[in-house]
């Protein structure tokens, strides 16, 4: 049998071994146009999957293939000049919460297709775009798609939108979800809308995507493949995790010492979570000063150049280990390979509104249990792992169940 010439179909014919493969047939069935008289109406669907199951890797190509086949068998409903909404060649837009995640997702997909970024798969973030006429999957930030939607409410030329990591509940993400739902109801019934998340209130989101019909969108759940995970409580000293001026230096020293403990007690790479770029750089400097032989210490946050971000996401060479010190970008949006131990500061930086001053800003808070479980899960993807939580069991039990919406 001849190998498919379409790179997307070639990938789907022989996909990588990821848990999401188990539901690809169900997804294809639910996303394909219904033959029972609902022509011209796009699908709406909610997909829940733990981090690392492959939802960002395989769902966009699957949807692009479904829409391309549909366009080949159905007459286009839009004008030939492309200025009116209607089915096209299967253009899919995928949103990510951060620029670093958008670049990484596009690069990973392009590598799987054996192409350069900007071909079948492209990306667009603030100040940078690599996409062309042949691009069928475009990965963008939520803010960028929001601005496109304001300029072009009908989203002409776009057949489907995948909202990834909707559980993060950012202001831009929530607003984009609301506007896309309205646009689909009033202007673009043919628009396919998929919401994907690692953890979220699925029933509530299904009702939102169900629109004015009063029904609920279908839910597809992807089972995870998590190996056994050991939990270790690395209690901080008397200074605690937070002081009057933010994160105390003593606590950052404690996190660095916990990373060294993880290196000594376990094999594999170590992933440490800190609340912000300043804390990441501080802990990286402390670990590099310790000069562990055969260990590379790498930062990972949104302020780094693309080359430094790529280095943190590249597997370690033979005979070497890595410590990746990251903000929450590695919590669910990115996959860091080779991790067998996670050191969690149990802190996060979240946007808050100061009502008295009518200003918003970033505030350092204790991480939610849902986010903490996602962080811990990074250690159990490739084998038995361990998570070191830099707090007491009491503090952990008092943590909110889910992050506070922006």
Describe the structure.
The protein is of the alpha/beta class and 406 residues long. It has 2 domains: 7-70 and 89-221, P-loop containing nucleotide triphosphate hydrolases (Rossmann fold, 3-Layer(aba) Sandwich); 229-398, Rossmann fold, CATH 3.40.50.300. The protein is built from 12 helices and 16 strands. It has helices at residues 7-13, 24-31, 55-73, 99-113, 142-151, 171-186, 202-209, 249-265, 277-290, 306-312, 369-377, 393-398, and strands at residues 44-48, 92-96, 121-125, 128-130, 137-141, 160-163, 192-197, 219-221, 229-233, 269-273, 295-300, 321-326, 339-344, 347-354, 359-366, 385-389. The strands form 3 sheets. Strands 4-3-5-2-6-7-1-8 form an 8-stranded mixed β-sheet, sandwiched between helices. A 6-stranded parallel β-sheet has the order 9-16-13-10-12-11, with helices on both faces. It has a two-stranded antiparallel ribbon with strand order 14-15. Helix 6 (171-186) links the parallel strand 6 and strand 7. Helix 2 packs parallel to helix 3 and helix 5 runs parallel beside helix 6. The model is unreliable at 76-87 (pLDDT under 50).
């Amino acid at each position: 049998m001849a190998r498919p010439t379409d790179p997307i179909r070639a990938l789907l014919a022989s996909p990588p071994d990821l848990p999401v493969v188990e539901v690809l047939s169900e997804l294809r069935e639910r996303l394909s146009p219904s033959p029972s008289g609902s022509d011209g109406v796009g699908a709406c669907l909610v997909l829940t999957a733990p981090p690392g199951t492959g939802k960002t890797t395989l769902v966009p190509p699957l949807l692009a293939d479904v829409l391309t086949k549909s366009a080949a068998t159905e007459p286009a409903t839009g004008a030939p000049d492309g200025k009116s909404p209607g089915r096209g060649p299967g253009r899919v837009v995928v949103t990510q919460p951060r620029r670093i995640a958008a670049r990484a997702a596009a690069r990973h997909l392009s590598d799987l297709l054996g192409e350069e970024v900007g071909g079948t798969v492209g990306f667009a973030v603030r100040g940078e775009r690599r996409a062309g006429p042949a691009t069928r999957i475009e990965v963008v930030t939520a803010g960028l798609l929001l601005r496109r939607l304001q300029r072009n409410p009908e989203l002409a030329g776009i057949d489907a939108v995948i909202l990834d990591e909707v559980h993060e509940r950012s202001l831009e993400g929530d607003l984009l979800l609301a506007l896309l739902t309205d646009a689909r109801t009033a202007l673009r019934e043919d628009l396919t809308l998929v919401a994907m998340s690692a953890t979220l209130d699925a029933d509530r989101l299904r009702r939102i995507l169900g629109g004015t019909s009063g029904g609920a969108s279908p839910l597809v759940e992807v089972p995870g493949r998590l190996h056994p995970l050991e939990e270790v409580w690395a209690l901080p000293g008397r200074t605690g995790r937070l002081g009057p001026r933010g994160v105390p230096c003593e606590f950052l020293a404690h996190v660095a010492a916990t990373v060294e403990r993880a290196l000594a007690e376990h094999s594999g790479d170590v992933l440490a979570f800190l609340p912000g770029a300043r804390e990441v750089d501080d802990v990286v400097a402390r670990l590099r000063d310790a000069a562990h032989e055969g260990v590379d210490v790498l930062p990972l946050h949104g302020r780094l150049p693309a080359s430094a971000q790529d280095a943190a996401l590249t597997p370690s060479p033979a005979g070497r280990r890595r410590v990746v010190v990251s903000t929450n970008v590695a919590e669910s949006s990115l996959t860091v390979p080779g991790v067998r131990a996670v050191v969690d500061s149990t802190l996060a930086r979240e946007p808050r509104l100061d009502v008295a001053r009518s200003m918003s800003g970033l505030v350092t808070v204790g991480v939610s249990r849902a986010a903490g479980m996602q962080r811990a899960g990074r250690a159990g993807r490739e084998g038995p792992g361990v998570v070191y939580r830099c707090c007491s069991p009491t503090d952990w039990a008092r943590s909110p169940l889910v992050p506070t919406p922006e």
